[in-house]
Amino acid sequence: MSIEMIGKQIASMRKEKGIKQEELAKYVGVSNQAVSKWENGGVPDTELLPKIADFFSVSVDSLFGRNITDYSDMRSALMKKINESTNEKVFKEVFNYCWDIERAMMSDLNLIEDGSVEEYEKNITEDAQHYSSVMTDYGFTRMGLANRLQYFLIVPETKDTEVALFNGIDYPAFFKDFSDPDVFNTCVMLHKRHHKKLFTPNLLVNNMGITFEKATEVLELLKKYYLVYPSQIEMDDEIQTVYQFQPTPSFVAFLIFAREMIDKPGVFCYYNEGRGKPYLK
């Protein structure tokens, strides 16, 4: 690729990531008109190329359309780019990288040019839920790609699912415990409440409409799963038991994939079914 084609490469990378010309211009320290000029056949000054490459987390060679073979440099650049993101934007940016990974794992490399998550979501309704999945004998992915709920799961093939998933784990007991509506609804209620606020069984009595005895039983069960921790305090000249809740993202993940089992995914933007062996072996 000739140097005159650099502007087209910049335009392609910018559009792929859903970035405005103003953002690139501000980072590099040039005018918006300069970026527009590059993308319409102009050429950036040579001293600006490293900074442009840093902005896109690529090598300078990539601006010339040359293939990158040093993957350790790519990982370092990606880590640097993520580290420089603000807390407000980092999860959105990382999710877009996950989207790039998902598309790159498909057999059709043309998918890489499809654009950002934000661009995809503009074409679906606010309450929609679309999915993407890659399933091979080497592992699988599952991606929630929509306005309603976003998530990305990647699971490399497990060497021994018996050891990884089943040894010492009593799944029937777990599902039996959480099949009790009072247990499940209490867990949901506590995850909606600030976890640093101490409480007594009366919180469950007042919010769940259950007896004090049932509330105590529920909390003892949640203690079994390290979701609540009791402690003793003196109040009104009496020793009382209070609880502190310990939230976990695992519960939210549990809800995500339980919902997939209950409400089977219907719309896949990408679906690569190439798996020939069982998921559990």
The dominant shape is elongated
Total E-strand runs: 6
What is the count of helical runs?
14
Order of H and E elements: HHHHHHHHEEEHHHHHEEHE
Q: Looking at CATH, which topology of the domain at 1-84 would you report?
A: 434 Repressor (Amino-terminal Domain)
Percent in strands: 5-15%
Q: Gyration radius, to the nearest Å?
A: 25 Å
CATH architecture of the domain at 1-84: Orthogonal Bundle
Which ranges are low-confidence, i.e. pLDDT below 50, for 5 or more consecutive residues? Answer: none
Strand count, sense and barrel status of the largest sheet are: 4 strands, mixed
Distance between the termini: 48 Å
Relevant CATH superfamily of the domain at 1-84:
lambda repressor-like DNA-binding domains
**Strand sequence of the main sheet, in spatial order?**
3-2-1-6
Oligomer: single chain
**CATH structural class of the domain at 1-84:** Mainly Alpha
Q: Percent range for helical residues?
A: 40-55%
**Overall mean pLDDT:** 88
